TrEMBL record:
InterPro entries: PPIase_PpiC, PpiD_chaperone, Trigger_fact/SurA_dom_sf. It comes from the Bacteria. This is PpiC domain-containing protein. Residues 254-375 form the PpiC domain. One of its GO terms (molecular function) is peptidyl-prolyl cis-trans isomerase activity. Keywords: Cell membrane, Chaperone, Membrane, Transmembrane, Transmembrane helix. It holds the Pfam family SurA_N_3. The chain crosses the membrane at residues 12-32. The lineage of its organism: Bacteria, Pseudomonadati, Pseudomonadota, Alphaproteobacteria, Acetobacterales. It is a single-pass type II membrane protein.
Amino acid sequence: MLSFLRRIFVDSWLGRIMAVLVFIAFIGWGAGDVLTDLFNGSHSETVATMGHHTLGREEFSAALQKELAATAQRMGENTPAKLSEELRQQVARAVLSRLVMRELVQEIAEEYGFVISDDLLRKTVFSLPYFHDSKGQFDRKLFDSRIQQAGMNEKKFLDIVKGELLSQAVLQPIAAGVQASEELVKRAFAYSYEQRQIARVEVPMAAFSADPLPAESELHRFYINHPWLFSVPEFRKVRVVLLSANTIGRSLDISETQLRQAYDANLAHYNRPESRNFVLFNTEDQQKAKILAEKWKAGTPLSEMKDLAKKEKISVVEMAEVTREQIPLAELSSSLFGADVNKVMGPLKTSGGWAVFVVNKTNPAVKISFEQARKELHDSQAAGQAVGLLPERVQKLQDALAGGNSFDQLPADLGAAALEGTLNREGMTVENRPAPLPVSESVKQALLKDIFSAHKGDHPSVAFGPENTYYAIEVEEVMPAHQLDFKTHLASIRQAWQEQSRRHKAEQEATSIFLAARAQDKGVMALSKLPYKAVISPAFTRSNPPADLASGLANVVFALKKGESTMQANRGGYEVITLLDVMAADPSQQKEAYTQLQQSLTEAQQNEIQQFFVQSLMDREKPKINNKAVEQILAGFSGHS
């Protein structure tokens, strides 16, 4: 849910206000009674004092719970009680520092006479999409409902917004003059957007026949020396109850009217015309266009084509998802939409000069009817409601299990998903297929860890997983790991031996190709009698390597020099790779990306300046900390209080 809100507010400071609303609601997984009276106006103790400002016990508790939960999640634990005492103390100090800094900034704002007008406060709250109806208008009933779900009243929420606005009034002018240097942006851009093109030669194991099967005694030695190939891991038969905003959302009824309104509001998304991605060179000189087309058709890399165009002062344009109607020249539009993919076209005479172009990709028209979009519309509309319902449903699930109820006795209106099956630590079934777990990879890994940490016969309890997912586990049966019997599984052992034989032959062949390629300036492209076809990949950046490139190999490719080769094992055999071309990033051709990076680096430096200023305030004001209150609150997360 937090990530959902971050997307809504684009990581703005207003998003942090809404995050307060969210994390306050998550109080169900083990904080004892620390947060029972959250934001009810009761401040039995003050945690810190900064001038006229104080940090209340309840607010510190809420922030600490959120941070401890996130830390536990990153460390693969489902509760902060499993974190070491030292780590919990470190997290508490970090949270306390952050909150004290916020109060100090607000103290300074008041000292300098900053005032947030009621009009600004009202406009800010009204602008928050979290409180908007389907028409994008502020909805008073929705506002009241959502702050109530978070356990807050209107005054407390408005105080939080006002405090954030005061902080911005102080901090923004401090950072206003900070700008990332041109040299820093250029270096970062060159690193991030440099492209590389490679040639790949696949050497598959399937191309080789295995050696004749050896005697049974040799097979037995192979069996003994490769125990990992012939062992069966531990399996567990389990029942799981999953509860998240997604599972709740799937159980909610959304009216036909709401679905229709959402569809009409997003009609442009569901009905998109055919479009093209292309690279186009344009010049008024027909002869230059002809030379350009000849070179490109001869296989000159795009990076060299761009260099030539720059030298000859020929304009170049790279466009993505351009529709026919968006191209103002009729003759160019017709040619672009009639061209084959990756074929150099032109020179083409247009009213704007002579064009030479390549269509990189065709994007077919998309027309999704209301009925086809119904599920997506339901899920998106239900998500907003489910987020608010999650804390209440988690508490209901906890109460049911704490009362001794079995999974079969759980309330039917929880909106939870029930799963049952047998799987191993890798999430594979006994048929060696991925278990159909309807969760993300991070939730899956946390779930598997807890499944294999539980004991048969334990009464299930609610655990907190990644991405605000809650689950309870019941282990019904444990099937211990064991080694396959040699005699019984002799056929499988023979098959494994043959596969090993084919892999060895593929490795020998790939090694010989690699050694030959390494001796050539153009690597595998210089080898004329290759038994396997060299495939040239499209150019890619560090962050966007080919999907089928082995994990980590992109880093190897970006460490190579032009013409150098490398060899890598993959699932089906081996591949030999040669770096064909290095295309330096060109800010003049990627102005939007360059500007975005410049803005990101500037924001990072502005944040650093602001943090330095706040730290100087702490050094000057020396806030008073109530260590006893901090220790008492922290004890509530130890699992022993």
